[in-house]
From TrEMBL:
It catalyses: (S)-dihydroorotate + a quinone = orotate + a quinol. Its cofactor is FMN. This is Dihydroorotate dehydrogenase (quinone). The keyword Cell membrane applies. Binds 1 FMN per subunit. Its EC number is 1.3.5.2. It is a peripheral membrane protein. Signal peptide: none annotated. FMN binds at residues 67-71, 91, 144, 177, 218, 246, 272, 301, 322-323. Its main location: membrane. Pfam families: DHO_dh. It comes from Hymenobacter koreensis. Pathway: Pyrimidine metabolism; UMP biosynthesis via de novo pathway; orotate from (S)-dihydroorotate (quinone route): step 1/1. Catalyzes the conversion of dihydroorotate to orotate with quinone as electron acceptor.
């Protein structure tokens, strides 16, 4: 019903308006007694072969929701009922911020893609923590953290530290996001020396807590092999638990959408099907060059079982959806999990 009826209606709306409409409706419905049970019955699928343990955490299945959909952790129970094995909230910043001016999210239907320049719009770390304290489900929660737009890169570590301190008791793992193309200058923090210094500072704060959380790094797909080699060394030197590969890309090569339309949209990160091959390439490179020494969460262009399996075969221990969830609808996770079990393609991370 989603692809034949709801999706055509939603795709007539501005992309961000459609997101808010669906988000609000799901939030209202989730507060009605029995609705979450109905969602679980309709969309969730569990099987022992789907379960896995990755960086010390137990996941019901390997398919999670990527950061960006539920920035403020307002729908984690509803999303858990839809069958996700984990939900990554954020990107969260220490202080609330509105993000970039609208319009800032665009669909490219011929490419099954999105371009966004949201700019870390969120209600701040304290608000996200408060939402997570209210949750009832036991789904694994990742906290994707970033810096405020007006924080200079030289002071960025303090923002990431503040997020760790605010969210530490309510998330299961952290992801340091220095790879979004939508906060000016942020990607400069991916260079080896500033990144290593940042991660060491964040890790010290993390390890000073009562129980240290797994700390991961989210990287861009636009890094060279030499930069990926640096990432492998940084993971080891900073004592990270893994890598999320990859964020959105600034590359526009090979799109089916007319170039005039793409140029009119302007800046932003591209996600969806055009990112699939490059994200898989990055995962395979990291896994091979590191000898599989750390877990990788694979993100980018996942719409089907074949896409999931491709990421797992390349070395990913878990995968995440975002654009595929928008295009394929709420039944996509259940469908992928069923097909994974049926195909016998599930492998432990």
């Amino acid at each position: 019903m989603y692809r034949s009826l709801l999706k055509p209606l939603l795709f007539r709306l501005d992309a961000e308006q459609a997101h808010h409409l669906v988000f609000g409706a799901l939030g209202l419905a989730g507060g009605i007694p029995g609705v979450q049970a109905a969602l679980r019955s309709q969309f969730s699928y569990q099987h022992p072969s789907l379960e896995r343990e990755v960086f010390g955490l137990k996941f019901k299945n390997p398919i999670g929701l990527a950061a960006g959909f539920d920035k403020d952790a307002r729908l984690v129970d509803e999303l858990a009922a839809m069958g996700f094995g984990h939900v990554e909230i954020g990107t969260v910043t220490p202080r609330p911020q509105p993000g970039n001016p609208t319009p800032r999210m665009f669909r490219l239907p011929p490419d099954r893609a999105l371009i966004n320049r949201m700019g870390f719009n969120n209600s701040g770390a304290a608000a996200a923590a408060e939402q997570l304290r209210k949750r009832r489900s036991n789904i694994v929660i990742g906290g994707n953290i970033g810096k405020n737009k007006d924080t200079p890169n030289e002071q960025a570590a303090a923002d990431y530290v503040a997020c760790v301190q605010a969210l530490h008791d309510v998330v299961d793992y952290f992801v340091v996001n220095v790879s979004s193309p939508n906060t000016p200058g942020l990607r400069q923090l991916q260079e080896r020396e500033p990144l290593l210094a940042l991660l060491r500072t964040v890790q010290r704060t993390n390890q000073a807590q009562r129980t240290a959380r797994p700390l991961l790094l989210k990287i861009a797909p636009d890094l060279s092999n030499e930069q990926l080699d640096d990432i492998i060394e940084i993971v080891r030197e900073a004592g990270l638990s893994g890598v999320v590969a990859t964020n959105t890309t600034v590359n526009r090569a090979g799109l089916r959408t007319p170039s005039a339309v793409v140029e009119d949209i302007g800046a932003g990160g591209l996600s969806g099907a055009p990112l699939r091959a490059r994200a898989t390439e990055v995962i395979r490179y990291l896994h091979t060059q590191s000898g599989g020494s750390f877990p990788i969460v694979g993100v980018g262009g996942i719409f089907s079982l074949a896409d999931v399996q491709e990421k797992l075969d390349a070395g990913a221990a878990l995968v995440q959806l975002y654009t595929g969830f928008i295009y394929e609808g709420p039944g996509v996770v259940q469908r992928m999990c069923r097909e994974l079990v049926r195909s016998g393609g599930v492998k432990k991370g």
